[in-house]
Amino acid sequence: MAGAAGGQGEGSGRINTPAEGALRAVRSLVELQETERATQLYEELGAAQRERLRREAAQRPVKERRGLVEVLRRARDFLGAARLMDGDGEDATVADLYVQSGQYLEAAEAYLRARESERAAAAFERAGALERALEVYRSLGARESMAQCLVRLSRPFEAADLYRELGQTHAEVEALGGVKPEDARFVEAVVRISTLLDAEGFTHRALAVVADALSSSEEARSDESLVTEKARLLRRMGMEAEAEAMLLRRAAGASAPAANGYRFLKAIPIFGELSLEDMKDLYRLARQVVIAPGTVLLEKGSAGTGLFVLMDGTVEVFSGPESDARHLNTLGPGAYLGEISLVQDAPVSAHVRARTSVRALRISRTDFEHYLDTHEAAALRIYRLFTQNLAARVRALST
């Protein structure tokens, strides 16, 4: 046998065996239970020789295969060892070897034969065979694992129903969060998420989810249930005026809030020459406000407090605060009030009261003065246009 195995090369630690005798040498070493030397020689074989050795060994009796299996395991040829053992009745061991080799589908089938269903399901899942994994988890009654598979299979509602049964609200929300806007049940998912978050005390987060959904598509904006849900959340947060304003827009046929106010602010004549950067800086100064019906926005004779840009709702302009004051105008989205107070310290010349719930942008005089101090070029442009507009008004009054 020593002749078959060959001698050691001086100082090399390698087994110097002619290629044509290598297969026989490995088999001989296995028979002699020289496992370490057999392992070293097996590792030095070429891929084709290793495959031939495994193929020949597969035809040998089980007892003879066992020795070579140990050699393959030590050589970390886990796949070869698994296939050499497969069918010998040691399915759990075979499955473990398949796992070590990264062959999860074969491992799963072997675990099933070994009646280790939970490990089989996990192996199916790792292999990406999610339907098979789901089937096994279902047979085990493993609902949490079933839910995880359903999420990965893009079946979020089924997953959410299981999480609800398990009392795992956060997981139910996460599952429903996977529903995309183009899904036919998108709105249903959003309303359900909102209800869950609100019940858990996360009303602000629920409102953000609904608001984001409303901005996702035209279909979502036209859905009555989303609008109703947003109004409910606003009321829960004590924002009755905002809820009322939104419902009024809905009743009037508006499909969404009037953009974000930027285009209205940009349209005001005295801002007509501002650069994009300066315009954006000005817009960031603005604060969105909701004004209840009947509230006085500007009081005649009082000091001006800044600019209002109407985005939703209507206001009425009167000659004064008296009950018999003359009605001068009714203004709606896009109208602006108080712009003179931004650049001139003068009393308000009219009395303005909200006719409906109003949503508006407001820039205070204090914030605007700071803006002028920090935007010199913008200040020059604003003052020039203000002067031109004022001169045009004077000429119109004198003709």
UniProtKB/TrEMBL annotation:
SUPFAM superfamilies per record: cAMP-binding domain-like
Keyword Calcium: no
Alphabetized InterPro entries for the sequence: CNG_cation_channel, cNMP-bd_dom, cNMP-bd_dom_sf, RmlC-like_jellyroll
Full protein name: Cyclic nucleotide-binding domain-containing protein
Domain Cyclic nucleotide-binding: 270-389
Keyword line: Ion channel, Ion transport, Ligand-gated ion channel, Transport
Native source organism of the sequence: Pyxidicoccus parkwayensis
Gene3D superfamilies given in the database record: Jelly Rolls
